[in-house]
Design a protein that fits this description.
The complex is a heterodimer of chains A (66) and B (280). Chain A has 66 residues and is mainly alpha-helical. Chain A has 2 helices and no strands. In chain A, helix 1 runs antiparallel to helix 2. Chain B has a 5-stranded antiparallel β-sheet. Classes of the chains: A mainly alpha (66), B alpha+beta (280).
């Protein structure tokens, strides 16, 4: 597997993890009402968006590199 | 004699030697970690009681963010080499190394915190005495968990000794311990004195504590060894090994590519380890 695809696979896995983290944290927040989990969930969701943006940037950048 | 296929790919495989080697190595690594993850699944599904949320979520999250950042940085370094920007490569490779070292430091802090954190299972006599003497015992006296039928207290011992056990206490002739019990929701209660004769079993949050901690240390310890391996390889390529860039730039880039593939594997393993121990 070329490195660029491996990296995209890894970042996608990290992106899915951040989504999972956000869902988990909001679930705990709804159950317990602890605001720290709402913050954690928000942070995870933002990290997911950043990773999604990065993977698009990386894909575009890699088109020009062999 | 010159070794063939160090730079150009072999026709049959489409890979140069180093890349074929690193993928074969990683295939064996998948089996190694796969065996440990299978052990985790077997232990967890077979356990009557499985501890949850025993780890610091903040530290685990920090380490996850650090490793994801390091994977991005290490690829940026490789990209810089592809674009013949050697100075940028040095910067990104150095930052990757820094991330790896910080990861290990945080892991070390976590391990230390566990080695000085104890669970004390009490005899029936010990439970009765503590209930009589401490009216607020329900704040810290824990119902049976890892050890069936035994109530326990968790917390820190006076002086924060490392890895003490019930047997070691008896061997030293210690008569009594002072424990600062954990309270539900965080923090510690007033110190509690427990006679060694009232202790049924005592251990730090070490591998001997339970199957949970045994598999935790096996997985994270092996992962940490892989991080150390990555640091050694990347340090060599960042330091004395970078001279190859002057004579054989393509071969050097291939070496970096192999180290990046390895680093992605190490980071990917962490993406699996993290939710297993820090979330559920």
């Amino acid at each position: 597997m070329p490195l660029k695809f491996l990296h995209i696979f890894f970042i996608t896995a990290a992106f899915l993890l951040t989504l999972g983290l956000a869902a988990w944290a909001f679930h705990i927040y709804l159950k317990t009402g602890e605001t720290s989990f709402a913050v954690y969930g928000g942070g995870s969701a933002v990290s997911g968006i950043v990773l999604f943006g990065y993977v698009i940037y990386f894909w575009r950048k890699m088109k020009g590199i062999q | 004699m010159e070794i063939p296929y160090t730079v150009t790919p072999r026709r049959e495989t489409g890979l140069y030697n180093g890349k074929l080697g690193i993928w074969m190595f990683l295939a064996s690594e998948v089996m190694l970690f796969g065996a440990l993850f299978s052990s985790y699944a077997a232990l967890r599904t077979g356990a009557d009681f499985w501890p949850t949320r025993m780890m610091s979520l903040a530290m685990g999250t920090m380490n996850t963010a650090i490793l994801i950042s390091s994977s991005i940085l290490v690829v940026m370094g490789w990209t810089a080499l592809k674009l013949k920007q050697f100075e940028k490569f040095k910067l990104y490779q150095g930052l990757t190394l820094l991330c790896a070292i910080v990861f290990l430091c945080i892991k070390g802090i976590e391990y230390r915190q566990k080695f000085i954190h104890y669970e004390v299972w009490l005899t029936d006599q010990g439970v009765s005495r503590l209930m009589e003497q401490h009216p607020h015992h329900e704040q810290w006296l824990k119902s049976p968990g890892v050890f069936p039928g035994r109530l326990s207290v968790t917390g820190h011992l006076e002086g924060n000794p490392w890895l003490l056990t019930h047997k070691k206490l008896k061997a030293k002739g210690v008569q009594e311990i002072t424990l600062y019990p954990d309270v539900a929701g965080g923090g510690h209660a007033e110190p509690v004195k427990i006679s060694v004769n009232e202790i049924f079993r005592m251990t730090a949050y070490a591998p001997a504590h339970s199957s949970y901690f045994a598999i935790y240390y096996a997985l994270t310890g092996l992962h940490a060894l892989h991080v150390i391996g990555g640091i050694i390889v990347m340090s060599y390529l960042w330091g004395p090994g970078r001279r190859m860039w002057l004579t054989e730039p393509e071969r050097f880039t291939n070496r970096i590519e192999c180290s990046v593939v390895y680093w992605h594997f190490v980071d990917f393993v962490w993406l699996i380890v993290f939710p297993l121990f820090y979330l559920f």
